[in-house]
Amino acid sequence: MEEFEIGLPTEQFISLICVKARKNQALGEVTAPQIMHEHLRLKSSAELKAHIGYYYEYYHAMTDPGSILCSLVHVRGEGDDVVYERNERLQIAGAGEDFERYQYLGVAYYLRDRLFFIDYESLTSNEISQTILIPSFKSCITRLNGLKIGVSAADHRAPACSRVVWEYLGQEINRVDAYRRVRLYKPDDCAIDDDLRARLAQTQVVEGLFVIA
Prior knowledge:
single chain; 213 residues; alpha+beta; Lipocalin; 4 helices; 23% helix; 41% strand; elongated
């Protein structure tokens, strides 16, 4: 309060207090997340935009140990932010070609030579995951290595961590054709080449929890 405000007529003083209270309440509801995001966005390197485009993401499936999951990721600019969408499909046991679909929405940052991707499962809202990648320092992006942490979609919902590889597809793709590859694969499937298999080979499974060897 300013000193002169205290000496205002009672009704005017009450009205002023109510206006200030509403402003403070509105600011209080959004301050913490907005400050965090704005701070990280400002610290994020402009090099992040060099990684905009479509990717296949490969990692050891947290729900089906022993399998490799391929998902489709789209990283794009939205105003001053870089956001992304990640789509997964998991085959339903005994249901032929039926799939369970998962869609993750998130935001990306480039902080001190590392790419950070934080998302949530938008259809069920029951999971937050984080992916950290080593960016490409070459003029042509091919494959990016890193780690992913999340939880299994199975009943036990075990926390899990896996090596992850993102394969760059380009800024414009045929999404229908690309989406056909999104599914679970066995490690010896011909769709998983030797280079990709080697990049993912440093993950082992212990009691349903993925740990880094």
